[in-house]
Design a protein that fits this description.
transmembrane helix; rod-shaped; DUF6090
């Protein structure tokens, strides 16, 4: 009788161990699958963020180079060197318009998935860029638009309809026009400085993302 009971206890104990191991194994597999899924989502998020940031760099360089050329062209004119003024109208019209390329960050933020970025340095840099730098760049875009709309274009339309070199030379003797040229020059300096700060942060972020993407290779 005792032997029978003992055999049953062994059987139940064996069954309990088998069931427990099965549950633990299933839990481990599910946990492993979940971790793999999160790692894949994190990897894809880094890739997508990198693509967005590289697009930003391309566009910022597209704006920055004309600003640099315009600044170098206008600088002698502000020093009353009027030997080369025939292209002034072209350089005066350099401007900046922020086109948002933050789809990945916005999707991560508003879907509550920003936390899948386990690299805190990347997450902090990306958040700093899109939450702080973007606001400054949006303001810069507005200032460029307002200056052109309310100061530069009204003066040019009213006074320089044909913009011949003689007209330009005549107006460059006037303080009002020189003040507008000087204001545009200062705005260009600010534009270049702001873009370079953004580029610096973006480049550091991309470097960190590359290290993360290549970590397991």
């Amino acid at each position: 009788m005792k032997s029978k009971i003992l055999n049953k206890l062994k059987y139940f104990l064996f069954e309990f161990i088998i069931v427990t191991l099965g549950i633990l194994t299933a839990f481990s597999i599910n946990k492993w699958d979940e971790n793999r899924k999160q790692e894949t989502e994190e990897y894809l998020a880094y890739q997508s963020l990198k693509n967005d940031l590289e697009s930003e760099l391309y566009v910022y360089n597209y704006y920055k180079q004309p600003f640099i050329k315009s600044k170098n062209y206008i600088s002698p004119i502000l020093e009353r060197n009027f030997e080369d003024v025939d292209s002034l109208m072209v350089y005066l019209n350099s401007s900046f318009d922020l086109q948002e390329r933050n789809a990945t960050y916005i999707n991560l933020k508003f879907s509550g998935n920003l936390e899948i970025l386990k690299n805190n340095e990347i997450k902090n840099r990306v958040t700093l860029y899109y939450e702080t730098y973007y606001q400054a760049l949006e303001n810069m875009s507005s200032w460029n638009y307002d200056f052109r709309l309310h100061f530069l274009q009204p003066y040019l339309i009213k006074n320089l309809k044909y913009s011949s070199e003689e007209d330009l030379l005549e107006h460059l003797k006037k303080d009002q026009f020189l003040n507008i040229v000087n204001s545009q020059y200062q705005l260009m300096e600010y534009n270049i400085s702001s873009i370079e700060k953004a580029e610096n942060l973006i480049n550091k972020t991309i470097e960190e993302i590359d290290r993360e993407l290549n970590k397991d290779k």
